């Protein structure tokens, strides 16, 4: 895919003075990807339709696609150092929010670089073929397991979130080669998770592990390791950032599986939505 500057170069001869003003603003702003279309138009002293004409001329499908492309390119060119994004005692709420956004940005960029698309697709196929799908996690990772199960339940089938290590052990002892476990552990060294995964593997279960440590104990026992990345700063652990990255990865798996399910998947998702809607006033 062509980068923003490359697209401008290709269209340079056809750019109008109005479009040049918009491009200038996109270049001089520190974070142009945070601007709404109205804000960009106001700063450029042009109309919103002029912004629309520009992103279409540059062959972006939408203004959102242009913003995402700019964000990704800036993350590649200027990754924030830990010193810059570390939260200081004197920081205002606005500054802290901006720094946390930068941390998320950096974590997403690092994860994108580290994550294997081939492994993601293998995980998708394993989930599709599973008779039973389990999500294992403990502590904060248990909430990620519950979120994952909640998503995949919408597609029907046998989906369970299990956070109690005793329950995990019981389920693991009865698994077969038709079962798939998605285990979440940022460190990859949660002892109980390692023990139940080892037990489940002996019974033939397929193990998908979401972790930041590819050399961890649970990564060693896994059939498929999906790596996430998040840095720790002085005043904030990486727990919050890692959870956000894990959520995005879980959403990616769910969206791919739902897409592969086709019309039947859409029917089941709508059926699930209707069931929940009936519980509301």
From TrEMBL:
Span of domain SIS: 123-263
Family matches, as Pfam families: HTH_6 (PF01418), SIS (PF01380)
Keywords: DNA-binding, Transcription, Transcription regulation
Cross-referenced CDD domains: SIS_RpiR
Gene Ontology MF term list: carbohydrate derivative binding; DNA binding; DNA-binding transcription factor activity
Matching SUPFAM superfamilies: Homeodomain-like, SIS domain
InterPro entries from the UniProt entry: Homeodomain-like_sf, HTH_RpiR, RpiR-like, RpiR-like_SIS, SIS_dom, SIS_dom_sf, WH-like_DNA-bd_sf
GO terms of biological process kind: carbohydrate derivative metabolic process
Residues annotated as domain HTH rpiR-type: 2-77
Protein name: MurR/RpiR family transcriptional regulator
Source organism per UniProt: Shouchella lehensis
Organism placement in taxonomy: Bacteria, Bacillati, Bacillota, Bacilli, Bacillales
């Amino acid at each position: 895919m062509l980068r923003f500057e490359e697209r401008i170069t290709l269209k340079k001869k056809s750019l109008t003075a109005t479009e040049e003003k918009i491009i200038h603003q996109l270049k001089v702003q520190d974070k142009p990807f945070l601007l709404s279309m109205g804000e960009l138009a106001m700063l450029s002293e042009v109309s919103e339709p002029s912004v629309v004409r520009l992103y279409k001329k540059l062959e972006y499908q939408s203004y959102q696609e242009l913003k995402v492309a700019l964000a990704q390119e800036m993350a590649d060119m200027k990754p924030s150092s830990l010193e810059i994004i570390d939260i200081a005692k004197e920081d205002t709420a606005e500054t802290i929010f901006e720094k946390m956004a930068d941390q998320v940005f950096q974590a997403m960029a690092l994860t994108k670089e580290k994550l294997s698309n081939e492994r993601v697709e293998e995980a998708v196929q394993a989930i599709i073929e599973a008779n039973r799908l389990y999500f294992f996690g403990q502590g904060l990772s248990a909430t990620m397991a519950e979120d994952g199960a909640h998503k995949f339940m919408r597609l029907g089938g046998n989906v369970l979130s299990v956070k109690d290590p005793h329950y995990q052990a019981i389920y693991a002892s009865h698994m077969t080669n038709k079962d798939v476990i998605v285990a979440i552990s940022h460190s990859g060294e949660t002892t109980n998770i390692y023990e139940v995964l080892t037990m489940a593997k002996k019974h033939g279960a397929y193990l998908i592990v979401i972790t930041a440590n590819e050399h961890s104990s649970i990564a060693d026992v896994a059939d498929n390791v999906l790596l996430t990345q998040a840095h720790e700063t002085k005043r904030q652990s990486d727990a919050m950032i890692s959870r956000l990255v894990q959520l995005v990865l879980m959403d990616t798996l769910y969206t791919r599986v739902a897409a592969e399910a086709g019309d039947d998947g859409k029917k089941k998702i709508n059926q699930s939505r209707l069931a929940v809607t009936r519980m509301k006033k």
